[in-house]
Amino acid sequence: MIVFYNHLKELYRTVKRQNFLFRIDEAEKNLKAEKVKKVSFDKFIESI
What we know:
- The chain has two helices and no strands.
- It is mainly α.
- The termini are far apart.
């Protein structure tokens, strides 16, 4: 049972990493295509 749990844990980490890399890739594509919204620093801080 422990081995199965460890495999699930590793699978979760792998999927999480892949999702993170996918989001970075999408962000880079949007930057290249200039599909980004520009916001002032003050408005960004207010939105947090």
